[in-house]
Amino acid sequence: MAGAKEIRTKIKSVKNTQKITRAMEKVAMSKMRRAQERMARARPYAEKIRLVLGHLASANLEYKHTYTVERPVKRVAYLIVSSDRGLAGGLNMNAFRVAVRAIKEWKDQNVDVDVALIGNKSISFFRRIGGTVLGTANQLGDKPQLSQVLGVIKVLTDAYRNGQVDRVFLLSTEFVNTMTQKPTIRQLLPVVPVKEEGLLSHWDYIYEPSSAELMDTVLQRYIESQVYQAVIENAASEQSARMVAMKSASDNAGKIIGALQLTYNKARQASITKELSEIVGGAAAISG
Amino acid sequence: MATLHVDIVAAEGHIYSGDASMLFAPAAMGEVGIAPRHAPLLTTLKPGTVRVKLADGSELPFFVGGGILEVQPHLVTVLADTALRGEDADEAAAAASKAEAEAKLAGAKSEMDIAKANEEVTMAAARYEFVKKLKSPTR
């Protein structure tokens, strides 16, 4: 029974791996649920600020804020949101593939691309492929706070204000459902406010201080809320991608264990048969 | 008696929602009191305390680090900033993010402790003010 012990050890090690992947799957499942709740909690603010911005935009037709003005594009920036940790299936690689394709398209048009990065994975990826990195944020944890990404947003809005970049895009993984996550690119700057038709004719706010100054704050908050939404949505995507990846890993481990068990049983059976035939053969030789 | 529906929301989540008889907020141009049927108003807020006066006369204080106040005749929304904001804090955060990017790419250690400490001090000062106000019996 030479192979049997080796097979037994192998089964044990695969079983241990399966235990880990199963635990990770369970953890990701509960974290995903909480991340989804967080997404829902952030929604009222995002909706409200979009509404206020729509109001402001329709009230201030004569005033154009820098954030809303389209400029000829000479340089663009991408804010790329990724996860901090791996083992989440194709989540980050899918996003990076979209990013690389978009960057290449801009380069073909002779437009330079800068990046700003959120998450460890994107930082290590762009360290490898190179490029100008404006700012980063990482180690956001399971409960990302708005304050953790403010710095990188400020870097981007400053770059836009200074005319360093003419357009800012946000790339993050959209949470469609538990099984599907889709890398999505959205334009962050210039802001295209959703104008509400027919609002102006009915009533308008009293603005304090001036509507122009308010526009500044509202736009900044709007951008921040968009980025924050993307970050928490990405966190939910990360957990669900991990859950699915770990589930298939557990299933695969189960299959391997089954196959190994079969081989082990066969080997055991063969050795028993061999021993029996030896005994029978030996007995026959003596009595014969 | 006419009431006012108050929603206080922050980017991270919902803070308070309910009916009130009046609301006081630290607006950019000075403290404002919003009674029911106030004209539509949009203003920015300074860091401070938003007080919600309930129908029974009691007051609920909420600390905001700034934000936006939107008033409609029977609806008040406070879009609160949870973190203390302001040019300095934002600049510090931006500098930190930049430094981090440089450090990450060079593989060196970043030096953002001073900016971080500054931020914490401003935050702590505002919190202290808030707590002091809460504890004072004259409120």
From TrEMBL, chain A:
A single GO CC term for this protein reads: plasma membrane
Q: What does this protein do?
A: Produces ATP from ADP in the presence of a proton gradient across the membrane. The gamma chain is believed to be important in regulating ATPase activity and the flow of protons through the CF(0) complex.
Q: Which GO terms describe its biological process?
A: proton motive force-driven plasma membrane ATP synthesis
State the compartments where it is located. Answer: Cell membrane; Membrane
Name listed for the protein in its UniProt record:
ATP synthase gamma chain
Q: Does the keyword Cell membrane apply?
A: yes
Q: How does it sit in the membrane?
A: Peripheral membrane protein
Q: Which SUPFAM superfamilies match?
A: ATP synthase (F1-ATPase), gamma subunit (SSF52943)
TrEMBL record, chain B:
Q: Which UniProt keywords apply?
A: ATP synthesis, Cell membrane, CF(1), Hydrogen ion transport, Ion transport, Membrane, Transport
Annotated Gene Ontology cellular components are:
plasma membrane; proton-transporting ATP synthase complex
Q: Does the keyword Chaperone apply?
A: no
The way it spans or sits in the membrane comes to:
Peripheral membrane protein
Q: Name one GO molecular function term.
A: proton-transporting ATP synthase activity, rotational mechanism
Query: SUPFAM superfamilies annotated for this entry?
Result: Epsilon subunit of F1F0-ATP synthase N-terminal domain (SSF51344)
**Domain ATP synthase F1 complex delta/epsilon subunit N-terminal intervals:** 4-83
Function summary:
Produces ATP from ADP in the presence of a proton gradient across the membrane.
Q: How does it assemble?
A: F-type ATPases have 2 components, CF(1) - the catalytic core - and CF(0) - the membrane proton channel. CF(1) has five subunits: alpha(3), beta(3), gamma(1), delta(1), epsilon(1). CF(0) has three main subunits: a, b and c.
Q: What is this protein called?
A: ATP synthase epsilon chain
